[in-house]
Structure formats: C-alpha cells, structure tokens
From TrEMBL:
Organism: Lysinibacillus piscis
Main location: cytoplasm
Taxonomy of the source species: Bacteria, Bacillati, Bacillota, Bacilli, Bacillales
Domain of life of the native organism: Bacteria
All residue ranges annotated as the Enolpyruvate transferase domain in the record: 12-423
The name this protein goes by in its record: 3-phosphoshikimate 1-carboxyvinyltransferase
Name of the gene: aroA_1
C-alpha cells in the first residue's frame, strides 16, 4: 500500500483513449474456456488483478492458460478432466471470481477450497450458496457458508426454478453455470435485469440459453466447445473518463471500443439526462458484445434522480456518478442502491465520507445518497478502503481541485484498470 499525491493543476483533457477490456467479460472468457473442451482464444483481455486471479485459479485446476499481451489462449480437456487442486484457490479481491466459481465447482467432480483477501472475507456468499444448496451442492464455510474460506465438494446437482431476491449477475451466473451440470432445466427469474454477459457468452460456446422477459433458462447436460471471444472495452472503466471530460474545463475526449451492452449502459443514459455533451457512435461489428466510440465535452449539468431498474445497469458507476453530481446544478438523488453496501467496501459510506472531505454537499441515505451542487471541490487526504472504484473517483476529483488530493493506496486501481494513471497522463493538457 503506497500513498500517492495527485496535483494536476486543473488541466483540460484532450485526446483519444482505447478503453481496456471489460472485467466481467474477461473473467467469463477464462471460466468458460476452462469448462469447454478444446482451444479458446481471447482478444482484448483485461490484465487487471481480478482477472489474473481467475487465471491463477484455473491453472491450479490443471487448465493450460497462456497470456500474451492482451491475447489469452485456454486449452482444456473439459471440466470432467480438471485436477483436484493441491493448493487453496485464491480469488484475491474479486467477488465475480469467487461467486461464479462456486457455481462451477459445485457441479464438478473435485474437491476445492477457496479464499480471497480481507474485503472478500466480508462479502456475503449465502446469496449464491443458498440456491446452490437447493440444487444439492455440498459447500461449507465460515458462518455456515456466508463467508470465505469455503470448501466445495463437487457432486451431482438437480435443476432449480429460482426467483432472484436481489438483482445480481453474479448470483444469476453461478446458478446458470451450476445448471449446466444439473439434471433438468434450470430457470432463473429476475425482476430487474442484471448484466447478461453469461447468457451471451454461453451461446458463443454452443450452449442453448432461453431468455424471455426476465426469465433465463437452460437445459442441464449441455457441453461447451472452445471458441474465440472478443472482449469489448469496459464501460465501467470508461465511466471515469466520461465524467472527467464532462467536469474538466475546455475538454473533449474520445473513448474507443466502449462496450455498450444495454444491460450495462446506464451511465450513458444518466449523462444524457443530466445534459452532458456526449455522442455515442456504435461500431458496425457483429460481435456478441456491442461497442461504440464515445465522445464527451465539458458540459453544463443538471441534477437528476437515479433509481429503480436503471440501478443494476450502472451499479459500479455510482461512485463516479456521485462525483459528477457534485458539479451539477441542483439536487441529485441516488436511490434503490442498497447493494452498494456489499461491494469491495460499503460504497455508500465510502463515497459520502470521501466526497465530504473534498467539500461536497452530500448525505447518505438508507439506499443511496443525496447530492446538492454545484460545489467547488478542494484537495484533501482520501482513503480508498482498498476499493479501486473509490480510488479512481478520488483521482478524477483531483483533476478539478486547485490543491493536491492524496490517496492512501493508489495501487488498488490495478484491480480493474492498471493503466488508469497513464491514461490520465495521456489526455491531460
Ligand atoms: O457479474 C459480474 O461480472 C458483476 C456483477 C455485479 O455484481 P452483482 O452480481 O453483485 O450485482 C458487479 O457489481 C460486478 O462488478 C461484476
Ligand atoms: C463490485 C465489483 O467487482 P466484484 O464484485 O467482482 O469484486 C466492481 O468491480 O466494482
């Protein structure tokens, strides 16, 4: 953990950035390539710490994975041929790795033990383990399986018809992946649609997945065949520069290769609602995940209300949206976002406490926050809580402060965006 002093002297931002690979899609490319038989090739893979944790776990299961820049090759003889790991599977800071692997390992034929870092040790796992246990999974862990470390004895599973109590793509994906190995048809019912990368990518690997009005189903016993995956740029990473371009003076930046999957594009809708000068030009490629070139300019912004079914479409962007709202005229209300409390840290408390230190007019509510703007921000010493998205929020804020912002642990950005600080250097004028 090392401190970083950020003193950018209120630059304007100009230029073009190629946004690095999507974290959710990168994780799934390795997981599905490892389950599949044959060779899977991935282009545009995110070399973030979370995705490297996923690679490390599958190597411990005996899957051959080669990394060459952002190209990754996975050679697997299929899930039936994985080796029982002699070491603990370490998932680092990654909720996605931990929860999706539970669904995968539950229906394998091997025993494994999984643990992660201090943040993972506080994140709820029963939301995944409860439905998996209903399918017959044999999983034990601390606090009856609520927290890591967790031990999984792979076994035969039965299909489930499950109504999701929270909008979570990690829970949905874990159940669907277990469902692949279960007897019968697994059905997951969502009241609010969460990101659908699993559904899209399973089809690329040859699995039949039905999606109808929030009901996702698949027949157990289907196998995956290795394929090619093109990873789009991560809209959650792009969000930091979209907000930076909107709030810095005399700025215009273009972001290339931004994933615009409709289950992820809430940030674009919010920027438009708030009056930002943003243009989105979809790319005409025929990929499973659509992409676009997005340009943003210095904007005059109005406050807005963000709640309901848009929340899952921008859940990871709320810290940076809160910063955006401090620069908008009037009130911004963020509600229905209790899920923020169980991310890498409690992101309601972290966002409110840290933006207050910078001079923002912001208050926490039970399910979100209320921000009054516009407020000029000033420098301060900020805590990241080891949470990449809180660290990047603080760093983008430092672009509009006259004096320095200090981050206690700037290295945490490498969880999802290792080139983040280089990208700031590349566009600041
Ligand atoms: O499935 C995924 O790849 C993710 C789902 C979301 O979590 P939840 O499923 O907990 O909402 C999101 O916050 C996380 O960054 C990645
Ligand atoms: C919540 C996040 O990821 P995960 O759940 O995979 O740790 C995130 O990237 O903001």
């Amino acid at each position: 953990m090392s401190e970083k002093v950020l003193q950018y002297n209120q630059p304007s931002l100009q230029g073009t950035l190629a946004i690095p690979g999507d974290k959710s899609v990168s994780h799934r490319s390795v997981m599905f390539g490892a389950i599949a038989t044959g060779r899977t090739t991935v282009e545009g893979f995110l070399l973030g710490e979370d995705c490297l944790s996923t690679i490390d776990c599958f190597r411990k299961l005996g899957v051959a994975i080669e990394v060459n820049g952002t190209n990754v090759t996975i050679d697997s003889a299929g899930i039936e041929n994985w080796q029982e790991p002699t070491e603990v599977l370490y998932t680092g800071n990654s909720g996605t790795t931990t929860r999706l692997m539970l669904g995968i390992l539950a229906g394998s034929s091997i025993h494994s033990v999984m643990t992660g870092d201090a943040s993972i040790g506080k994140r709820p796992m029963r939301r995944v383990i409860d439905p998996l246990r209903q399918m017959g999974a044999q999983i034990t862990g601390r606090a009856n399986g609520q927290y890591t470390p967790l031990a999984i004895q792979g076994t035969t599973l039965q299909a489930i018809d499950y109504t999701m109590p929270v909008a979570s793509a990690q829970v949905k994906s874990a159940i669907l992946l277990a469902g692949l190995r279960a007897e019968g048809t697994t059905i997951v019912r969502e009241s609010e649609v969460s990101r659908d990368h699993t559904e899209r990518m399973l089809r690329q690997f040859g699995v039949q997945v039905e999606v109808d009005n929030g009901v996702v189903s698949l027949q157990g016993g289907q196998t995956l065949t290795g394929t090619h995956v093109a990873v789009p740029g991560d809209i959650s990473s792009a969000a930091f520069f979209l907000v930076a371009g909107a709030i810095c003076a005399n700025s215009r930046i273009t972001l290339e290769n931004v994933g615009i999957n409709p289950t992820r594009d809430g940030i674009i809708e919010v920027l438009q609602q708030m009056g930002a000068a943003i243009t989105v030009t979809p790319s005409d490629n025929e990929q499973a995940e659509p992409t676009a070139t997005v340009t943003i300019e210095t904007s005059t912004l109005q406050g807005t209300t963000i709640g309901g079914d848009i929340i899952p479409r921008l859940i990871d962007e709320i810290p940076i949206i809160a910063l955006l709202a401090t620069q908008a005229q009037g009130q911004t209300i963020i509600k229905d976002a209790e899920e923020l409390k169980v991310k890498e840290t409690d992101r309601i408390t972290a966002v409110v406490d840290e933006l207050k230190k910078l001079g923002a007019n912001i208050e926490a509510t039970e399910d979100g926050m209320v921000i009054e703007g516009p407020t000029p921000l000033h420098g301060a010493a900020l805590r990241t809580y080891g949470d990449h998205r809180i660290g990047m929020m603080g760093a983008i804020a430092s672009l509009i402060t006259a004096d320095a912002v200090t981050l206690d642990d700037a290295e945490c950005v490498a969880v999802s965006y290792p080139s983040f600080f280089e990208h700031i250097e590349a566009v600041k004028k």
